Amino acid sequence: METQQSVLLILLSVAYLLTCIDGQQAEISRNDFPDHFIFGTSSAAYQYEGATDIDGRKPSIWDTFTEEHPEKIADGSSGKVAQDFYNLYKSDIVDRLKVVGFDSFRLSISWSRVLPYGTIAGGVNHKGVRFYKSLIKTLIDNGIEPIVTIYHWDLPQALHDKYGGFLSPKFV
């Protein structure tokens, strides 16, 4: 772990030094990019939402993995709280994304939050749908384009248990 941290520190230092000209930091602005260039940021539901066990969300394979094998995660953390975006998204969008000036935010929808058992037949979690609807509306209302992925390697545990995940020909 120390070796990885040392390498990262060296790479960051080199990157910083490369941005310096005559001892001064190089200035880069939006004007240095084409007019149609989109400045954005992204994350995945499991990485930032938190709230893994409230409002009808059921476990994903990542929830199970981090609970059963905390030693496999460097700091032993899980997605239970994460960045608590589920509860803080409105202020995060206004106080962070909008202030920085991002044009877009790429997010993933937690399959386990919208379809807790993995299928429509298993039931739709309307609280999850309302969350994403409100999140997307808040982004748009603040001039930030939502870019949505519907799967980010967080398969509902119920589907993994039933089919063995994507390795099963029955799954596809």
From TrEMBL:
What SUPFAM superfamilies does UniProt report for this protein, alphabetically? (Trans)glycosidases (SSF51445)
Keyword match Signal: yes
Question: InterPro entries under this entry?
Answer: GH, GH_1_N_CS, Glyco_hydro_1
A molecular function (GO) term: beta-glucosidase activity
Q: At the top level of its lineage, which domain of life is listed?
A: Eukaryota
GO terms classed as biological process: carbohydrate metabolic process
Q: Which Pfam families match?
A: Glyco_hydro_1
Keywords from UniProt, A to Z, are: Hydrolase, Signal
Which residue positions does the secretion signal occupy? 1-23
Q: Does the keyword Hydrolase apply?
A: yes
Please report which protein family the annotation says this sequence is part of. Belongs to the glycosyl hydrolase 1 family.
Protein name according to UniProt: Thioglucosidase
Origin organism of this chain?
Answer: Ficus carica (Common fig)
